Structure formats: C-alpha cells, structure tokens
TrEMBL record:
Keywords: Hydrolase, Metal-binding, Protease, Signal, Zinc. PROSITE patterns: ARGE_DAPE_CPG2_1. Belongs to the peptidase M20A family. Coiled coil: none annotated. InterPro entries: ArgE/DapE_CS, Bact_exopeptidase_dim_dom, Pept_M20A, Peptidase_M20, Peptidase_M20_dimer. Residues 223-366 form the Peptidase M20 dimerisation domain. It comes from the Bacteria. Residues 1-23 form the signal peptide. It comes from Roseateles subflavus. This is M20/M25/M40 family metallo-hydrolase. The lineage of its organism: Bacteria, Pseudomonadati, Pseudomonadota, Betaproteobacteria, Burkholderiales.
Length: 465
C-alpha cells in the first residue's frame, strides 16, 4: 500500500533533487570529509566471520583525535578473549546542567559473498545517486554521521548543557551474541554510557514509489526477537517399511496449523500513534483503512485489507516465520530427529512464554517447542514530548511539508538492551534512504541521504542540548 502524501509537492522533489546533485557533484568541505570517513568505514570488513570491529573503530578514533579529542576523551574496549570485537566510547563534556545524551551505532555488518554481488561488497561504489556496499545503509551511514557531527562539535569548542556520548559498537547483527557491544558496555562499563536518553537506528524517512517523501519517522519501539526450535524425534527404521508415526509428518502438520494461525491484533502506544499519523496523511480508501483499525472495535474490513500487506501485518501482531529445517540422516532410513527453526518477532509488552505456549499448542504433543536463546524482553520508550517537538522542528526546517510519524520497528535493534537498562532509546536517521538489499544482495542507499542525515542529526542534537 502506498503512502500518498501530496503536501508541498512542488518544493519537496526539488529539495531531494538538490541533495542528489550534491551527492554526485560539489560537496561542502564538511560533506566531503563525511564521505571520506564513511568510505573508509565501509571498506573495513566487519563481518563476524573474518572481519574486525576493532579495526573500524580504531580508524574512526584517528578522525576524532584529528578534530581535537584526546586519549582521555576516548576509549576502545573489547570483551576478554575477543580483540576483534572492539567498541569505541567517546565523550564531549558539557556543563552538566542536564544528563547525557548517548548516540549509538553498530559498525558490524551481515556477511556478504563477493561471488553473489554485482560489485565488491567491501568497496564503496557511487552510481546513479546511490552508494552500494555492505553496510552502506545498515549501519555504517549512521556511524559516520555521528562521528562527523562529534568532530564538528569539538572543532567549534561547543560546550552543551549535557555531555554527548558516542558509542560505536559490535555484534548487533549477531543474535544471540555473547559479545554484543551495547550489552557488554552496560554490564561492564555502564558509567561510560549512562545517559538520560539515546539515539540509535530503526527510524527514518519513507519515500513513495515515485521518490516523494511520505513521512519522517521517529522510532519509539521495536519488536522482541525470539527464535524457537521445534524438535520431533522417533526410533527411526528402514525406509522400506514406513510408518505413520514419522516426525516429519508431525512437524509438517504443526507447521500447516502455524501457517494458518491468525495472531491476535494489538495496538501498542507506538502503533496507535503510527496509525493516527497515517490516517492524517493518507487519502481516500487508504485513510479510511487506517482510521478503521483505530476504531473500537476495529473495522473488520479495514483490518483484513491491511493484513494482506506484509509490513502492516507485522505492525499489527506478532509474527513467526519458518527459517530453517533439518531432518533425517539417510535417504533410505526413517528420520530419527527433525528440527525446524522458527523466528518470531513479538510486540513489546507481550511475553515470550505466551508465544511459546501458543506455538506448542499449534505444533501438537509430538513436537517439543523450546527457545533457542534467552530473549531480551524490553519495554518501548515513552513518547517524549520535548524530543518529538525538537524532531518536528528540525524536520520542518530541512523538509518543509513532510509530516513526522511515531513508528515501531518490526525488526530488532540494540535499543532492547538500553531500554531494559532504563536508558530510553529512539531510532532515527533524519534522512530518506530508500535503501534496498539490507542483509541481502547489493545493499544500497541514496547518496543524498548521507548528507541529509548529517544535517538533521547535527541540528537535533543542538536542539536537545
């Protein structure tokens, strides 16, 4: 379903076109510096298999020190026995009249095989207004934007009302991980990153199919990540004498019930705010559908239409997707063990144990459902009035006529650790990325989005100082 924003159409495309021209032609000195450090960061391999987050954050430390930060302002910390999993923490001292603001960006990336990509995934390529590379969008763009802004603040000798903390972290892309950077810092170095509020990824602007802005998103919630294993076992035997009590049959029947199961629909404070915003900016039948799910009770027709859209279904309810299956041990033997992996994304405020109980009921008595790891059940962030006001003001300055929406991420980011620790965290990018290939092939991001994000974050941090 499209988001048919039609406000200020004469102005907005011109703004975005101007950004695209900037990305390809003359950059300001600050933008050129940003692009250079972004390229350096992207071209350092930070995959879990062969990469090094430490190399990446050490490279960023060189840039930060060139702007005037000292060793006393900056630390690089790695978990014991994992020197490649380094995390950088930087502090710009304020006058202390307010509690700190933390900016978090992970520098690790998902695996990428050169033979599968059109271009080398670890070389930044700019073509037709896009940056291509692994991590181009997720999440080395945010990391570069934060580094460049912290350099600018230092050079200006700015003393904000609160300390500004930057954390460049590792292992966000590995769930579960014993070396997640945010979790490690909270557990072992909490005073270094303790803050009143934090910014991370998961928010950002949306473009329609014509490249026009729909809205600018501020993320206040994300779904809970939990993987389950469905295990069925049997005594096996010779395949020439098959039996009905086959664990593959048991699993298949349960998965058929799971595929047909209508997960209950729930509006959280974040998704209610999202649909209220969409009802304001949409037109015609789409607006009516958004309004319909806000009714008490919900309009069943509106709900049915929205649930046909994968993204909207994920916003409205829990989801559980089958991701892997492993069974049997020989082509001429009945299976003795079958394991199916199901990855669930659970609405904040709901319990993992209740989802597990539902899955167990669906799979039946012959299949054992068990968690593959311990979930991080974290609350959503409150919708903070001063942040929303500052965010809206900055957006109006940079993108006149584009509305601001509260959003929930249907994926999972590091905010789960921070929110659980009481550091309310908000996802934003301040840019219209129109990215694709994230976690997949040929990841790309609008080149202009890098410079949009730099301007937006710089203004927002100043508003929140």
């Amino acid at each position: 379903m499209k988001h048919p924003l039609r406000l200020a159409l004469g102005l907005i495309p011109a703004l975005l076109l101007c950004g695209a021209v900037l990305a390809q032609q003359a950059l300001t000195p600050a933008q050129a510096e940003l692009r250079a450090l972004y390229q350096e960061l992207v071209e350092i391999n930070t995959t879990d298999s062969v990469g090094s987050c430490t190399r990446a954050v050490e490279a960023m430390a060189v840039h930060l020190k060139s702007a005037g930060y000292t060793d006393a302002d900056l630390q690089i910390l790695a978990p014991p026995g994992k020197p490649q999993k380094g995390n950088l923490v930087l502090r710009l001292k304020g006058n202390g009249s307010k509690r700190p603001l933390l900016m978090v960006a992970h520098v690790d990336v998902v695996e990428a095989r050169r033979e599968d990509w059109t271009r080398d995934p670890f070389k930044l390529v700019e073509e037709d207004g896009y940056f291509y590379a692994r991590g181009a969008s997720d999440n080395k763009s945010n990391a570069a934007v934060y580094v460049a802004n912290m350099m600018a603040f230092k050079r200006e000798r700015w003393v904000p009302n609160r300390d500004l903390i930057l954390a460049l972290t590792c292992d966000e892309e590995v769930i579960p991980s014993n070396y997640n950077g945010v979790e490690f810092l909270l557990k072992h170095h909490r005073p270094l990153i303790d803050a009143e509020l934090a910014f991370d990824e998961g928010g950002g602007g949306s473009l329609d199919s014509q490249g026009r802005p729909d809205f600018q998103g501020l993320k206040v919630a994300e779904k809970i990540y939990q993987t389950f294993e469905m295990v069925a076992t049997d005594r096996g035997g010779h395949s020439s004498v098959p039996r009905r009590d086959n664990p593959i049959f048991d699993v298949a029947e349960g998965l058929s019930r799971l595929a047909a199961y209508p997960w209950p629909v729930t509006l959280t404070p974040a998704t209610r705010a999202y649909y209220e915003g969409m009802a304001r900016i949409a037109k015609g039948p789409e607006a009516a559908d958004y309004q319909g799910v806000l009714k008490e009770p919900m309009d069943p027709g509106a709900l049915a239409r929205l649930q046909k859209i994968d993204y909207q279904r994920a916003m409205l309810s829990n989801t559980c997707g089958v991701t892997m299956i492993n069974g049997g041990h020989a082509q001429n033997a009945l299976p003795q063990r079958v394991v199916v992996t199901v990855n669930c994304r659970i609405l904040p405020g709901q319990k993992v144990a209740e989802v597990q109980a539902t899955l167990q009921k669906l799979m039946g008595d012959q299949v054992k459902v068990k968690p593959a790891h311990e979930a991080v059940e974290a609350p959503a962030s409150p919708i903070r009035a001063d942040l929303l006001a500052a965010f809206t003001e900055v957006n109006a300055e940079l993108f006149p006529g584009v509305p601001v929406l509260i959003t929930m991420s249907v994926a999972t980011q590091d905010a789960r650790f921070l929110n659980k620790a009481g550091i309310w965290t908000y996802g934003l990018s301040g840019s219209f990325r129109n990215s694709s290939g994230t976690h997949g092939l040929n990841e790309r991001m609008r080149a202009a989005a890098l410079y949009e994000g730099y301007a937006f974050v710089g203004k927002l941090v100043r508003r929140m100082q």
